[in-house]
């Protein structure tokens, strides 16, 4: 089986043009088939602000009413996605920008209303990994925006960490998959205020301990839940690392590697 690297790049890096350019240069230089999933939550919040639309996040998920859905569709599916695709083209990577609706790649279902009404937020139902494999075989590099679609034809806002995990898991049918979450810190930290406290190997038991102690919190919790889910479902290797250390993470094991 061919290997495939699925990489997710987070919103804090996307919001910093210099850091994004550095990351994309390293991404472009990685050998072999690869695929990028991007976030952009920070940019969406800034654009919503300018339009007078208030942002509400609950457990790391954006409450997405119709005006907010319009914003995230424009920001993720348009602005951020196309800027990344253009930069990759300039780096000689033939990138193809996609939302989950494009080529029917990621189908979702509107999150049912329980205690909280998230609005137009999608929980992933099905990934068409055969279609993604088809793009890869044409030597195209898919770049996914965190937008999915429903069977009824609605666009849905979907967390980018979840999207990367779901795509990686389904690609296991075709490839030996490595999943790498890149963000602005050096990995999962024992102490979030100390950038030199990287946990080299994280097991579910250690994760539970650090979470209970409050050392792993906020956005890192849904990220790790998605990351462990990928490891449990056939992804060979899952790494969380700094965007600048992507090349070393692939080759030399920097950052945090998840263990089952
Ligand atoms: N133990 C930890 N190690 C590293 N980051 C942590 C930790 N606990 C909480 N965090 C926070 O999690 C954030 C990453 O989650 P999130 O903002 O969702 O990432 P992304 O930008 O990749 O989507 C970091 O910016 C950091 O503030
Ligand atoms: C439903 C939901 O919360 N979707 C996310 C999608 C973007 C994202 O995940 O961006 P980062 O990776 O930069 O956080 C949001 O709108 O913030």
TrEMBL record:
Pathway: Amino-acid biosynthesis; L-arginine biosynthesis; N(2)-acetyl-L-ornithine from L-glutamate: step 2/4. It holds the Pfam family AA_kinase. One of its GO terms (biological process) is L-arginine biosynthetic process via ornithine. It is found in: Cytoplasm. Substrate binds at residues 40-41, 62, 157. InterPro entries: AceGlu_kinase-like_sf, AcgluKinase_fam, ArgB, Asp/Glu/Uridylate_kinase. Keywords: Amino-acid biosynthesis, Arginine biosynthesis, ATP-binding, Cytoplasm, Kinase, Nucleotide-binding, Transferase. GO terms for cellular component: cytoplasm. Its EC number is 2.7.2.8. The record marks 8, 223 as: Transition state stabilizer. Belongs to the acetylglutamate kinase family. ArgB subfamily. Catalyzes the ATP-dependent phosphorylation of N-acetyl-L-glutamate. This is Acetylglutamate kinase. It comes from Spirosoma arboris.
